[in-house]
Predict the structure.
Amino acid sequence: MNDTALSLPDEIKSLTLQESTQELAAKSEAARVAKELEAKVALAKRFPRHVDGARAEMVAMCDRPSFCLKQDGTFRALYNYPRGGKPIMGPSVYLSRAMAQAWGNMHIIDCEVLGEFMNPEGKLMRRIRAITWDLEKNVFHAQEDTFEKLIQRKDKETGETRWIQPDERDLRELTFRRAAILERNTTLKLIPADIVDECVERIKLTAEIHTKKHREEMLPKIVAAFARVIFGLDKKAAPSKEQIKDTERKVSDHLGHGIKDITLVEINELRETYAAIEAGQSWLEALQPKAEASREKPKAEAEVNTDDFEAEAPTPDQKHQDPPKKAENPISADEVKFLRDGLGAAGKDDTWFKKLFACIPEDLDKAKYKDACDAVQTAVAEAEEQGS
């Protein structure tokens, strides 16, 4: 009894000392973080960002095909997700991080675990938060997310997809994946929306130009990417010939015609479909076959939308003239759209637009396509001389 009574105060002293040490360590860490943030704010004030330079750097990144697209030809810098039956496309986490680096003077807390709790239904939930702070303007955005600690896994024996408890590695990946979305959302709130929209449109244009140049070699890569998703293969695995043939059949059913007749517009649509599948949509839903009535080979010539340009009223002499004869091998709608998107990215005024489009009639023969491109370049040079 006496020994126990004498040793008790020593135990209390040990616990008190341990608590004091932990409290001191916490205060020391808080002071270190505060000093670090103060130094970052001071540097941001000393070296403010140049908005035009940051914007030019962002747009220049979006002109690189390797930045916009993965090796399999699908989008890297954009995501696509269906909502209300309509596709929603926007900048991906990859793009938001690159834009934050170009914008500069930003402090990002990409993943902060706030805690875990049991919801009323008895499910174990985790709550996380991401914060992005503009050190120069002293503005920050924070966003939280709460999710159940479950992951989807496919049963190898039955082929059914089930929700299971994750191990430590899977839980870490799940947490970082959810936190990356919060990081993207908070980051983009601090970058002007017009710059974000400009980058998104430039990425679409870069992908279209790259596809036009490398169409034959990119199509097999896109089919292989869909095959990996359909058959549950690893991202680096090579699908078998049977799997490729089966995937080509599914993609052809989705397009409504043979895959060899695919257009540039449809390749971009497949990219968006693949991005939607990566975002969580079922491939069965994303690659729904078209109705039998709509299964016909796409026409080589399609109408070009010219609503943005004012049509000039015909003169009395022109009303009685015979319509112009169509060329036997006319320029395709994809080629017209390619030039038109390029002009749109140039951002010139309406007069410059009309002058340029006078060089690209819809019935232009392919043999004269190069002449039209030369005429476009001449019009560009004239416009630049007039502007200077």
Confidence is low (pLDDT under 50) at residues 1-7, 292-330, 345-350. The CA atoms of residues 313 and 327 lie 24 Å apart.
